């Protein structure tokens, strides 16, 4: 037994997670009635969600308080990459919808829909999140509010004494250690999540939506394996695939099963540290990306909205679809904290196409039915892209610096 435990500890975390996935699948087939096994997944996701807000709050304060004047954070580049990535993902969703038009088998929605009525309400919600009470922001995992308060406190502490900064840094290290311990439990958590997905939810209900899932997942794969690598290459002039595969393997897999960008923040922080990225950048860009970098959401919104239009025989020209993508990309940040995520933006977007609200509600119902796969793939793309673009911004800065030195030598 001791040798088996030592062998387990010697394995790479990714290998352990793969073994957890296989074990969860095996248990779902052999003992499908042992639903108590799902508690491992629930506890893992809950632990990640619990530690993520305080991790972000402390790390951002520490990064800004310790920041040395003149050291670049690359945040402007990261934000630009987030916008380009989300918009390009939406375009891929539009093109996929035109190339593979899909009709929906509309059903009555069983979920309570509380979608924003327009872009004004979305922006209003965003501003209210920005000025949220800090205690409430932490308890509700409002990352816009958490970032705002952490940045303000961090700047205020830049002139604090050295001993105060040391205490802040020590707290940051302690919280990071707790996060690492939680992440070590990922194989058992993934086992429970896989078991729940297969044994409790089942996949049989997805058979009638095979074509829709093909378009959605296909578009997300194109973004993850073609569009994002192209953006990395153009910005940093390096082979993008080692970075892309590393993020999909170590961030995307976990996000796929947790189905929560917020829960995956600690995983992405750890991966950024492993890649040797600048903590002054990733301490801010990772939690911000979990809120505003919504490539998968843009695909979901555009594909389902255009599928609804196709079902009703509504003709949508390409540029109208592009406008819808731009609207959904901008509004996703404001609605990201609402339960249901991207699906609850669909009624607002479809209203611009003249689709009645009751039909839009049925489209959301379809979204919840396929959510066991759609939401998983969407979260995996969203979350892994956060690290991809954070790293790309740093690599791009290195490329520009190298080019400048070459010109100076010439």
Distance N terminus to C terminus?
Answer: 64 Å
Number of strands: 0
The secondary-structure element order is HHHHHHHHHHHHHHHHHH
Instruction: Classify the helix fraction into a percent range.
Output: over 70%
Q: Main beta sheet: strand number and arrangement?
A: none
Description:
This protein is mainly α and 410 residues long. The protein contains 18 helices and no strands. The protein has helices spanning 2-10, 13-30, 38-66, 75-99, 119-130, 134-139, 143-156, 162-183, 186-201, 210-236, 241-258, 265-274, 279-292, 295-311, 318-335, 346-351, 357-369, 371-409. Helix 3 (38-66) crosses helix 9 (186-201) and helix 14 packs across helix 15. The radius of gyration is 22 Å and the shape is globular.
């Amino acid at each position: 037994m001791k040798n088996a435990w030592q062998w387990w500890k010697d394995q790479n975390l990714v290998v352990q997670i793969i073994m957890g996935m296989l074990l969860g699948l095996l248990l779902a087939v052999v003992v499908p009635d042992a639903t108590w096994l799902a508690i491992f997944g629930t506890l893992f996701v809950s632990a990640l969600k619990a530690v993520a807000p305080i991790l972000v709050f402390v790390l951002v304060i520490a990064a800004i308080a310790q920041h040395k004047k003149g050291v670049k954070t690359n945040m402007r580049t990261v934000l630009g990459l987030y916008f380009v990535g989300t918009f390009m993902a939406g375009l891929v969703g539009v093109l996929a919808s035109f190339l593979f038009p899909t009709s929906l088998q509309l059903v009555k929605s069983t979920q309570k829909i509380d979608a924003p009525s327009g872009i004004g309400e979305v922006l209003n919600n965003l501003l209210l999140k920005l000025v949220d009470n800090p205690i409430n922001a932490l308890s509700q995992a409002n990352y816009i509010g958490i970032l705002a308060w952490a940045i303000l406190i961090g700047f205020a502490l830049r002139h604090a004494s050295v001993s105060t900064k040391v205490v802040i840094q020590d707290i940051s290290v302690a919280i990071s250690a707790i996060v690492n311990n939680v992440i070590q439990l990922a194989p058992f958590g993934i086992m429970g999540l896989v078991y729940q997905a297969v044994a409790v939810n089942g996949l049989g209900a997805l058979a009638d939506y095979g074509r829709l899932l093909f378009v959605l997942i296909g578009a997300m794969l194109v973004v993850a394996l073609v569009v994002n690598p192209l953006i990395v290459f153009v910005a940093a002039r390096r082979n993008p695939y080692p970075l892309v595969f590393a993020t999909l393997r170590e961030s995307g897999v976990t996000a796929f099963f947790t189905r929560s960008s917020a829960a995956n923040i600690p995983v992405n922080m750890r991966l950024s540290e492993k890649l040797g990225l600048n903590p002054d950048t990733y301490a801010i860009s990772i939690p911000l990306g979990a809120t505003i970098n919504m490539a998968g959401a843009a695909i979901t919104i555009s594909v389902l909205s255009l599928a609804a239009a196709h079902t009703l025989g509504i003709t949508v020209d390409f540029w109208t679809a592009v406008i819808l993508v731009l609207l959904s990309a901008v509004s996703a940040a404001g609605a990201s904290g609402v339960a249901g995520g991207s699906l609850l933006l669909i009624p607002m977007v479809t209203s611009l196409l003249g689709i009645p609200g009751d039909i839009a509600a049925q489209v959301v119902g379809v979204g919840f039915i396929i959510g066991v796969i759609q939401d998983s793939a969407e979260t995996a793309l969203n979350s892994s892209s956060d690290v991809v673009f954070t790293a790309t911004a740093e690599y791009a800065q290195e490329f520009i610096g190298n080019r400048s030195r070459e010109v100076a030598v010439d």
